[in-house]
Amino acid sequence: MPLTTIPRTDPTSILRYRDGLYAVDLLTAAIIEFDFFTKLAETPGSQEEICKQFGWAPRPTDVLVTLCKSNGYLSEEPEGTIRVTGLAKEHLVSGSPWCLAGYYESLKDRPVAKDFIRVMKTGKPAHWSGHKDADADWHKAMLSEDFAVAFTASMDCRGVFLGKVLADHLAADLADRHRVLDIGGGSGVYACALAANHPHLTAAVMEQAPVDAVAREKISGRGLDDKVEVIVADMFQGKWPKDADVHLFSNVMHDWDIPEIQQLLGHSADSLPSGGLIAVHETFLNADKTGPLPVAEYSCILMHSTQGRCYSTTEMFDLLDSAGFVDPRFQETAGDRGVIVARKA
To answer: Would the pTM count as exceeding 0.90?
Structure first.
């Protein structure tokens, strides 16, 4: 079974092309539409002050600043002042003889670059590129059966590789556990990977329609009907089963803003027994949000099309602490992903 083996080669470089697809469009909007680097060179400031100066919403501003810090275009001082670096002064600030802003001029009419102009100002996600409903962001699009089936399948193929590696990294944590609840689990590929690699575990995938049908089909196709079930529920409603001692959030948090993450973690804390395990599997930024660059680039497509972004390990530690989880620890897994494990106090 593919879920119990890993490939001989590492597909991370292939994942990165898709994950970082929108970074160039965000940078184009910053350079051409907002002349961001020129203005910031004249008036450095904190991230909050940048929001006020440019009329931007906090979430997209965070993503842009993180992308630029990861590339070495911006630096942040200990007290929070953000400045352009020597690299940006020479090549991204108007008036420099080496300014490359003109090189990006021909990209300004790309649809996603135009989308970012609106997203920066409003903080609201744009429509999902290619969806037939021009007003549907990713969250709305997932209520459409055709889109939900296709999108879930695309995430499933990625999870065959990532799920096995995740299962291996969680082996010690899962040794004395018995049941996993995979919240917002999509096709169930991660729940299936845990169950296939740890035969003592059973699992349930919590999903809403129409994704639940996709999950059932995939689980059955993998021969795991007796180990993994599907529970149809809205994860934000809080009506979670209480028979699991492990909660898994795999590639879920990055689709949501902080208030929604706080809500999900609150429901998790309410449903897990004392000592229960939570595992958050994501693309994480480092503590000071200066990289890794592939994660900062991935955050651009998330900010564009969902209500979320990539979070730093420190941000997730703080959110878990506020929800009543203790002893968080982070470990890298594969494909620029990692997992944070903590337990309910």
So the answer is: yes
